[in-house]
Design goal:
alpha+beta, 3-stranded antiparallel beta sheet, 3 domains, single chain
């Protein structure tokens, strides 16, 4: 049997970042064969990670890589079990390298990434860190030509990343609109849009939201009535998707009937109807304003929607621009976290 020296243990530890005693143990098992000892550590590291498979990884960080010429951008979300590990240098470096890898190789999904040589590196790094860590999702946006603009934003906590893409009339407008797109990315970071436009909602989703929102307002009104406060308007609809030409025509006819009943002179109706019709649309598109980026009230000027704000910014540049795509990733979004008492868990294991 080959002698295992302190120098060999040190070399293996430096190469794998594994605990000293584990390094010594596998070197003895491998009869001093460094390569075999490394493989044993990998196997055991992966086994440790597998034991954590039932854990929920809902903390973590996002990564963003943008081409210097704004022609391509990649965003990545990597999850960890604890925020403590997310602040670890090794974890942050893993996020950086994974973002670079996805940006460079354009994989189709997470499975493709994990099936490569980089996936092996990812797994080995996770084993060293010693906590359940997952590459959850990623997205890449590219521009087709110099008339398409793009910009992005990572929130200061590194838990939210957004990329915005807009089609413009010219290269000049595309270059000039970048600052506005960064502001829109910041807006999206805070306002959490789920889709680009109301047109992206499914019919089933809108129907479900309609019932839920109407019932919620009715219940809220019951409490407001009990307190003697002004009741909220109960809408009939929640999305522009539902407001067909027939429904809008009926709304306009109802407005005219009301004006007639109020004895308003017909000669001033044209000045009143557009505002009241706009109010009808506003009251009946609450879902769009909450979840569709283009229809949200712009945080820097709430008199405009995001779409209108971008249009206005492009007009000042002498051109036109329209947002056509975006990606927003927020760490842990949609993951149901376990309400574990971590201190109690540690105490139980110590006992």
């Amino acid at each position: 049997m080959a002698a295992v020296t302190a120098a060999m243990v040190k070399e293996l530890r430096q190469a794998t970042d594994a605990p000293m005693m584990d390094c010594k143990k596998v070197l003895v098992e491998a009869d001093g064969n460094m390569e075999k000892a490394t493989e044993l550590l990998k196997e055991r590291g992966m086994a440790k990670a597998a034991k954590k498979a039932d854990r929920v990884a809902a903390e973590g960080l996002v990564g963003l890589k943008m081409a210097d010429d704004f022609s391509k951008a990649t965003v990545v979300e990597i999850n960890s079990e604890t925020d403590f590990v997310a602040q670890n240098d090794a974890f942050q470096n893993l996020v950086l390298k994974t973002t670079e890898e996805v940006y460079s190789t354009d994989p189709s999904d997470v499975a493709e990434v994990m099936g490569t040589e980089f996936g092996t590196y990812f797994t080995e790094t996770v084993a060293k860190i010693g906590e359940k860590i997952e590459l959850r999702r990623f997205g890449t946006i590219e521009v087709e030509d110099d008339t398409v603009a793009m910009n992005g934003y990572v929130h200061s906590n590194n838990r939210i990343a957004v990329v915005i893409k807009a089609k413009c009339d010219s290269a000049k407008t595309a270059k000039g609109i970048r600052d506005t797109l960064k502001q829109v990315a910041m807006h999206a970071s805070a306002m959490k849009p789920q889709v680009l436009s109301y047109k992206d909602f499914s019919t089933e989703f809108v129907e479900s939201e309609t019932k839920g929102r109407i019932e919620a307002i009715k219940k809220e009104n019951e409490e407001l009535a009990r307190l003697g406060k002004t009741l909220k308007h109960v809408p009939t609809y929640v999305s522009m998707m539902q407001l067909s030409d027939e429904i809008l025509a009926q709304a306009e006819a109802d407005i005219k009937e009301t004006l007639k009943a109020q004895n308003k002179p017909e000669k001033i109706w044209d000045r009143i109807i557009p505002g009241q019709l706009a109010r009808f649309i506003d009251d009946n598109t609450t879902l769009d304003k909450e979840q569709a980026l283009l229809d949200q009230s712009y945080v820097l000027d709430d008199k405009l929607t995001v779409a209108e704000a971008v249009e206005a910014a492009a007009k000042k540049l002498g051109g036109t621009a329209e947002i056509v795509d975006f990606i927003r990733l927020e760490v842990g979004e949609g993951i149901e976290k376990q309400a574990d008492d971590f201190a109690a868990e540690v105490a139980a294991q110590m006992g």
